[in-house]
Amino acid sequence: MAEYHERVATVATDILSAIQEQLEKHNVTHSEYRVAWKWLAGLAESGELPLFLDVFFESVVERLTHDGKPGSQGTVQGPYHLPDAPLLTEEPFVLPMRDDEPGEPIVFTGSVRGLDGSPLEGALIDMWQAGNDGTYSGFVGDAPPGNLRGRIRTGADGTFQVRTIRPAAYQIPAAGPTGEFLSLLGKHAWRPAHFHFIITAEGYEPLITQLYFSGDRWLDAGDGDVVGAVKDDLVIDVREGDDPELASRYGLTGPYQIAEYDFVLRQGDANVS
Ligand code: MBD
Ligand code: FE
């Protein structure tokens, strides 16, 4: 049996009271309760519970934990990270993808540094993203397992460079219980296109974050990201690539884009964020 836990008891008791108060305030009927009960049971059964939790609650606790601290801004991890993505060892780094992977090629480059600007050699960048159809491999869609997921290490000067494709905006599946719920609330189900990262380095706090692309329709402050996880510092400009040497390094023959970001980590416990 579990033992009394003061923190859990304090927070959970207040959450339960808040729900009970709202049931009373709105005179929720027994038959309405049965409908909601069925929907919640279906949510759990569908496997979308992690998605639902991250959509409605993760950005609140992420902001409470990290806002106002120096260094790169964090944001939500979301439900689509998979551990153990392959460590890419052969430069130039290319995220695992199909030979005919749809989407505009993009070279993502930058550095990982400490707050004082010192380059962090051997920092681990775990990167994952949706494809050009807005889906994450291993969840829905027809991309092979592990597609557009990989880990790379920074070089001696703290820099990195990896080629991938530009992700599409993400839409919560309309047919599932989370999408159904958003429809009932009159809300759209979109997130702006984004890259995901977990960046770790010995002696530094892990940085869980995302980068977005300026001009994206779903960045709108009023009617944008359904998850509410965008922060201004995480929106980057992408430019057209015009470096033939860079293009040939990756075997790119057509147009491609370049995105840059310098990640700044706080010193601290590598196991806590
Ligand atoms: C996503 O792709 C995502 O990143 C988050 C945080 C929630 C739902 C879908
Ligand atoms: Fe995502």
Structure write-up:
The protein has 5 helices and 12 strands. It is of the alpha/beta class and 273 residues long. It has a single domain (47-265), classed as Aromatic compound dioxygenase (Protocatechuate 3,4-Dioxygenase, subunit A, Sandwich). Strands 1-5-2-12-11 form a 5-stranded mixed β-sheet, with no helix packed on it. The longest helix is centred in the N-terminal third of the chain and has 20 residues, at 6-25. The radius of gyration is 21 Å and the shape is globular. It starts with 5 loop residues before the first helix and ends in an 8-residue tail after the last strand. The structure holds 3-methylcatechol (MBD) and fe (iii) ion. 3-methylcatechol (MBD) binds next to helix 3.
Characterize this entry briefly:
The chain is α/β, with parallel strands linked by helices and 273 residues long.
In quaternary terms, these chains amount to: single chain
Shape: globular
Give the biggest sheet. Answer: 5 strands, mixed
Strand order within the widest sheet?
A: 1-5-2-12-11
Task: Give me the Rg, rounded.
Answer: 21 Å
Count the DSSP helices. 5
% residues in beta strands: 15-25%
InterPro entries: 1_2-CTD_multi_dom, Catechol_dOase_N, Intradiol_dOase_C, Intradiol_dOase_core, Intradiol_RC_Dioxygenase
Family: Belongs to the intradiol ring-cleavage dioxygenase family.
Pfam family, one: Dioxygenase_N
Keywords: Dioxygenase, Iron, Metal-binding, Oxidoreductase
